[in-house]
Structure formats: C-alpha cells, structure tokens
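Tokens as discussed.
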C-alpha cells in the first residue's frame, strides 16, 4: 500500500475520547502539593484556582478515556484533523532509508497545537457559568489560542504576556485583541506579585513563571474568574492526546508502526499528547518504540535539571509540582529566541523520563534554526522555532539511519507555524544569533532556590 503525502482522517475517524496516559503508568506522577502545608492539594483547594471539571481531570490517574464533549468535537472539526505528512522530500534530500512522518498542528489561526486544550478549558469554564479566565503567555501562542476559544464561547479572556515577547511580537498581541482578549505586559503594576517582582528587579524582561503568578492573582481577586494554563498540567496533556490519537489512527490505516517518536518539550504538552497512545502501548508491553524529548540547550530542564518538588511560578503562589526543574527563578539568556523557556516540565513526562521510558536531548539554537531553514526549503512549511527542535533531532536520527542503513519509521511533532517568529529568523539570517548555554554555576544558583520539604 503506497502511503500518500498526507494522510487525512474522515470526520467519523476522529477521536471521540481523550486518552489519559496516567491510567497505564505504574509509577503515577507525584501529586501537587500545597506550598503552605506541604500536603497534597485537595480538590477543594484546587477548585479555588481552576474550573471544577478540569480539577477532576487533573487529579484522575485511573480513568483511561474521557469522552470529548460534542461542543468541543464541533470546534475541533473546524481545524482538525491535522494532516499527518510523509516527508518524502526530506527523505530524498537526506538520502536516508528512514521513513519520516510529521503531524502538523500549525494549520489554525492561532498557529499551534495549543488550541486543542484552549477550547477544552474554555468549554469547562463556560459550562461552570464563569465570566472569564486569566492566563499567562510566553511567546504568545497560548494566549492567542485561548482568546480564540474564549471569543467562540463568549468568555472574557485576560492575558499576561511576558514583557520581552509583548515588545518583540506586537502582531501576536494584535491577534489576541482581534479575538477580544485584553493583554497586559508582565511583570506589571496591576498585581501585588508583579509590583514586588518589579521592585526587586526593575529591568526584568519577564518570564513565564512570573506571568503565571500574576495571572493566578488576577483570577483569585475577581469573582467569576478562574486561571487556566496552556501546558505542564496533567489535564493539558489529556486534551493534547487528540494529536497522538489522530496520528495513531492514520498510521494504523497503513499498518505503520513508529520506531521513534520525537517532539520538542517546553512544558511537555505537545510531546505528551503526541506520544500518549504509543507510550500507552509501550507501558503495557505491546511495543518497544523509542521516544525523544528535545529541549533548548539554553533551558535544559530534563537534561540538566533535577527531579524534585518545585514551584510552578516565580512568585511562588502556585502549588508545588514534582518535576524536572532548573529552579523557579531560572530565566534563559535574553538572546534565546526559540521558545520552550519554562523552567520545569510536565510531571507525567518527568516521571516517564525518570523511569527510563523517555529519552531527552538538548540542542543549541543555531543548529535549530539551520534545521528550520533546511526544512522550510525542502518541505515548504515555515516551522515555529519550537517545532524546529524536533526537526533537528528528526534530521539527526534520519542521518544515523543513512549510516546504519536502517529503514526506521520516525514520527515527529511539527507543532506550529513560524510566521510570528520572523524577528528570530532575521537574527539568524543576519548572523546575530548566538548559542547560549548556562554554566554549571548559574544552574546551581537557581537550583539553590528549590523549596526544602
Ligand atoms: C507552546 C509551544 C510549544 C511548547 O509547549 P509544550 O507544552 O512543550 O508543547 C511547542 N511548539 C509550539 C509551536 C508552541 O506554541
């Protein structure tokens, strides 16, 4: 059976339920802890910050499938299924016997996979009768996705955007405003935690951890609002399983078994979603597929961090999560342009990595942009810099296959479009991009701030 360039699914082949990978994990991800008491966060405590149904999903380690509400499936139909592409041109150019596939999530106006969870989180907020939601955004993709989902459902959306991105990416901001969201550069003087961070560090360009603190405070101080987060949390990986489920259905149509699945890892949501059903098979002893998380050398949470309880945010208002972390005060060097700048990692992926089911590697940003440009020229898609981390590793693995002659099936996640990152591409083309790798001393300093339990 010849595999087409793009394998699309019909509407009735699309997933009707999300898959909860935790149900098949022997070692469950560790519970979130209340930073004040050191005890696991109760449902009631979490419901002060998050929507109720999402709290249920967050805490549920045993239910393998959650049926996707019809309203969410209707929204998914507007931009899903996303294409699964056989990268024939890339294979040819690399002269590799490997078969390379990628799942492209950049074909919606928000430009990335984040819409898959944004619509789910907005739906449950609406169903609970809330007025609106608050959130943070780093590079802007999550804020954009959430503002699209909120405008569709008629919810207010307040976004705290990391200041350096707010300034460097004015177009991102305008898309969010087009969808009716209000956007505040973070740290700001609109919250107590923002004012404290500004006082301690007036020139800070902001960080995700800091914007999270502000968004949580904003949710807690307005009745009818809850906070939503675009990555890291178990519920987000649950929603993102739609990526992997679609990919698996498409590959199964052609009886293709992936040998290697690769994804970029910021907070871990796209990778966790892409690998979910395949990792489930591995955990159940049904496959020996390999999985690789690719992270920037300038923010190497898995490859150089420690597995410990840490704060999810800089302001230390969020619950503690046990994860691979660089310390909640860690901020990547300002010349880092490739996204994926969160100090921690999804507790699910952290546990899988710790237990040896997932591999990780760090790549430097010039090599990432070289891969991005190469891919754009060969496959005709301008990738997001984040996605290009996965491209880098996929190309490297395909080149290994050229050496060994193995015809491996490689699947990688192409998480988004690069249209909003042309300033980064410009710096790359002008030769102004440098690699920045934190020193051991820098990492030790930020790890010194880990909470002692
Ligand atoms: C946010 C984002 C990522 C990284 O987030 P994860 O939660 O690790 O998936 C990767 N690619 C794109 C395009 C993104 O917008």
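Sequence:
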């Amino acid at each position: 059976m010849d595999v087409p360039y793009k394998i699309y699914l019909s509407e009735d082949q699309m997933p009707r339920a999300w898959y909860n990978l935790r149900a098949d994990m022997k070692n469950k991800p560790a519970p979130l802890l209340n930073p004040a008491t050191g005890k696991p966060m109760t449902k009631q405590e979490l419901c002060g910050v998050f929507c109720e149904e999402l709290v249920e999903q967050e805490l549920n380690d045993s239910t393998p499938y959650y049926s996707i509400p019809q309203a969410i499936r209707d929204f998914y139909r507007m931009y899903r299924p996303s294409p699964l592409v056989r990268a024939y041109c890339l294979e040819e150019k690399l002269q590799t016997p490997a078969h390379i596939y990628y799942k492209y999530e950049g074909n919606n106006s928000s430009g990335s996979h984040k819409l898959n969870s944004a619509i789910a989180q907005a739906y449950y907020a609406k169903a609970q009768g809330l007025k609106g939601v608050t959130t943070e955004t780093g590079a802007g993709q999550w804020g954009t996705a959430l503002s699209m989902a909120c405008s569709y459902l008629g919810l207010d959306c307040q976004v705290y955007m990391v200041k350096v991105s707010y300034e460097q990416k004015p177009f991102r901001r305008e898309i969010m405003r087009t969808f009716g969201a209000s956007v505040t550069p973070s740290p700001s003087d609109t919250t107590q935690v923002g004012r404290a961070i500004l006082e301690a560090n007036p020139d800070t360009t902001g960080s995700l951890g800091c914007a999270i603190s502000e968004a949580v405070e904003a949710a807690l101080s307005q009745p009818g609002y809850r906070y939503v987060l675009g990555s890291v949390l178990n519920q987000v990986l649950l929603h993102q399983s739609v990526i992997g489920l679609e990919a698996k259905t498409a590959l199964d149509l052609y009886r293709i078994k992936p040998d290697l699945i690769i994804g970029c890892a910021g907070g871990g949501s796209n990778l966790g979603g892409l690998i979910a059903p395949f990792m489930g098979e591995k955990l159940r002893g049904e496959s020996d597929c390999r999985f690789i998380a690719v992270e920037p050398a300038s923010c190497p949470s898995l490859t150089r961090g420690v597995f410990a309880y840490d704060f999810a945010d800089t302001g230390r208002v969020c619950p503690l999560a046990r994860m691979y972390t660089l310390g909640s005060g860690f901020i990547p060097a300002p010349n880092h342009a490739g996204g994926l700048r969160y100090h921690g990692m999804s507790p699910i992926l952290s546990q899988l990595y710790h237990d040896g089911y997932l591999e990780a590697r760090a790549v430097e940003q010039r090599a990432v942009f070289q891969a991005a440009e190469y891919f754009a020229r060969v496959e005709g898609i301008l990738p997001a810099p984040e996605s290009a981390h996965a491209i880098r590793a996929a190309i490297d693995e395909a080149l290994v296959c050229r050496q060994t002659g193995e015809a491996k099936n490689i699947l990688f996640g192409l998480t988004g479009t690069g249209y909003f990152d042309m300033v980064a591409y410009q710096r790359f083309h002008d030769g102004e991009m440098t690699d920045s790798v934190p020193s051991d001393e820098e990492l030790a300093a930020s790890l010194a701030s880990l909470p002692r339990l």
